[in-house]
Each structure stands twice: as C-alpha cells, then as structure tokens.
Design a protein that fits this description.
The longest helix is centred in the N-terminal third of the chain and has 19 residues. The model has no long low-confidence stretch (mean pLDDT 95). The chain has 14 helices and 16 strands. The two termini are 31 Å apart. By secondary structure, it is of the alpha/beta class. It has an 8-stranded parallel β-sheet with strand order 7-8-9-10-11-12-13-14, with helices on one face. A 3-stranded antiparallel β-sheet has the order 1-4-5. The protein has a 3-stranded antiparallel β-sheet with strand order 6-16-15, covered by helices on one side. The chain has 2 domains: 116 residues, Enolase-like, N-terminal domain (Enolase-like, domain 1), CATH 3.30.390; 223 residues, Enolase-like C-terminal domain (TIM Barrel), CATH 3.20.20.120. The chain is globular and about 60 Å long.
C-alpha cells in the first residue's frame, strides 16, 4: 500500500455552550483550532490524524502545521509504502520540533496501514485491552468554586471514577479546592492534580502533603520542568505521592533523561505529539524502568481522541487515559461520535481507527 496523497485541513470547533473555557496555571482553551490530516492510499483507502497545536508548549500554530505538512512532509512521504515504518520514521524525524504535525501524520499513516490489513489499530500495535480504556476527566480552573464542584460531580454521575484537578495557582486556594472536591465526590473516586509547572518548591512542598491527606495520589508537573532538584526533593519528601511528567517529556530523549533522574513515577504519553512510533518507544522505555504510563489529553476532538484510545488499548504498561475531556466539545467531524460507558471509552471495532469523517461536518467547521 503506497501513500498517494496527503491533505492538511484546518478546522475549528467550540466547546459546548454550557462548558466554561478550560483554564490552567499558564493558559486556557475554549475551542479546537486544529488540523485534520488525511493520508490517501491505493484503492481509495484513507487514514486520519488530528494535529492539536499548543503554541506555549510546542511553538506550533494551526497555520504552521499546514505549512509544515505542505513544505516538509508531503513530498518525501508521497509514494512511500505504509509498511516501511522505519523509513517513514526517518522522514518524520528529519525536521526538529513540529511535534503535532509529525504526530498526526504518524497516526494517519498507521491508520491507513491497519485499514489495508483489515484490523483495528490497537490490535495491530499490541491488543492488550479488550476494546475499551478507562478514562479520567479533567477538572479545570473555574470562575467560582461552585462551578468547579458542579463539574466534578457531573463527571462522577456519568460514571467517571478518576478526576484530574487543575491547580498551580495560590497553594492555599488549591488545597481548599481539592478538599472541597473530595467532600463533594466522596472517598471512592481517585484524584490527582496537575500544577502545569505553576508552583515553586516551597508552594509544592506546603500544598502536596495536605493534598495527599485528602486522597490525592499523584501530581503532574509540580514545578518548572528545568527544576530537576525540586522534582527529586518532592519525590523523596512526600511518601505515597507519584510525580507524573508531561511537559517535561515531549520527546523520547526527554523521557530517558527523566527516568535516569529517578523522580518520575508515571509518564504521560500524548499521542498528538509523539504519534504511534515514538509513543511506542516511550512506553517500552518506561516499562524497562518499571514506570507505568498513561495516555494524556491534548484536548483532541473525535479523530485524536479515538487515536489516543487505540494507543492506550495497545500496551499493558499503559494503565489509564485522560480522554473524557472529549465530552466538552459542542460537535465533531466524525460520522459517529465516541462512546463512553461506565467510566470507559469504547473503541470502534472497524479497521484502523474505525472512524469515518462526516463530509457535511467537515465543510461546516473547515477554516
């Protein structure tokens, strides 16, 4: 199966009207200004990926992703065979940065490969889970405590069993927030927090023991990525608390560095930035250090959410996902939206990603 054509299509979808913009310590989000990647093969087959630019983390924009595909990747990839993963990887890795452009192309090519073989992508990659993955929901910073508590309770009522709470502002307010959510959702719901590098060492060391007392088992990026000594200090000072790395593990080389440092307790694998090939390398590398992984969210819409779910279902070293964030979108490009049941995302069982694009929706949301 040869690649015959590559398209990069910008689109924009807002949050639901009843959903406040997502906020975290360093930014926010209220719509998906993303890029749909479509890789055409022979016999009319198509593979899909979704590029999700996050300028403050990767330096990409919707426009830069389209330009990267047009100028860097389309020419060399067109005519290559989808089974030649190593050769394709060389082309994708040839240009530094361009994380989500590269990741979405990698996903789309693997989707096309799995479709050509007639199997779901997660089974081609490893097939560890039986067609569904557990999902955590992101509780973002709201204008009021009442709104945050309402969102938390709503997620739990939908069957979500794990919440990730955004913190990283004022440590006292953060602790009060976590305690309030715990009281609202009860003691059986698992909870971890994400500071998005918003604290300094003193704030983290004050807030986190109090959060552990409230049942928090993990913290994501508590201090600046560059503060390696701070991460080690937190890991050694607070028993029972895992440090989840995200912004600090953008590449395979980043993961290797953090694993050797010894502070990390879990790795966030984000399919939009590492695609399929590099995600697989990260999962295997972490497994060799006996460190589990989860599938993080980059606020993907349907294409990216399903792709991330396939990645999450493939490997035994991936223990959770954050894909309930999908529930915030007002609409989707997919002909059939993802299915959530009892705290899990249920994967489509068709070949590849098992999805199809609704041409009318694409026309409506195309930029």
């Amino acid at each position: 199966m040869k690649i015959t054509k590559i398209e990069a299509i910008p689109f924009s979808i807002p949050f639901r009207r009843d959903v406040e913009p997502s906020r975290w310590s360093s930014g926010g989000l209220d719509r998906a200004d993303h890029v749909l990647i479509c890789v055409h093969g022979e016999d009319g087959l198509k593979g899909y990926g979704e590029a999700t630019p996050r300028p403050v983390f990767y330096g990409e924009s919707q426009r830069s992703i389209v330009v990267a595909v047009d100028e860097f990747y389309r020419g060399p990839l067109t005519g290559m065979r989808v089974m030649e993963s190593e050769k394709i990887g060389v082309v994708l890795d040839r240009y530094p940065a361009n994380n989500t452009a590269r990741g979405a192309l990698d996903v789309a090519i693997h989707d096309l490969k799995a479709r050509s073989l007639g199997v779901p992508l997660y089974k081609l990659l490893g097939g560890w889970r039986d067609g569904k993955v557990p999902v955590a929901a992101n509780v973002s910073l709201k204008k009021s405590l009442k709104a945050t508590l309402a969102e938390s309770v709503k997620f739990v009522q939908m069957g979500i069993k794990t919440l990730k709470v955004k913190v990283g502002t004022d440590p006292r307010k953060d602790v009060d927030l976590v305690r309030s959510i715990r009281k609202a959702v009860g003691g059986t719901i698992e909870m971890y927090v994400d500071a998005n590098q918003g604290w300094d060492r003193r704030s983290a060391l004050w807030a986190l023991p109090r959060m552990v007392e409230a049942g928090v088992f993990m913290v994501e990026e508590p201090v600046a990525v560059s503060d390696t000594e701070g991460k080690l200090l937190i890991a050694r000072s607070i028993p029972g608390l895992l440090i989840l790395m995200d912004e600090g593990v953008i590449t395979v080389q980043d993961v290797c560095r953090e694993l050797k440092l010894g502070a990390v307790g879990m790795i966030s694998v984000k399919t939009p930035r590492t695609g399929i090939l590099n995600s697989q390398k990260i999962v295997r590398l972490a497994e060799s250090f006996h460190i589990p992984c989860l599938i993080g969210t980059q606020a993907e819409t349907g294409v990216g959410t399903i792709a991330s779910a396939h990645n999450g279902a493939a490997y035994r070293n991936i223990v959770h996902t954050e894909l309930a964030n999908y529930l915030k979108w007002a609409d989707d490009l997919l002909a059939e939206k993802p299915t959530f049941s009892d705290g899990h995302l249920v994967l489509p069982q068709g070949a590849g990603l098992g999805i199809e694009i609704d041409p009318q929706k694409l026309k409506k949301y195309r930029c």
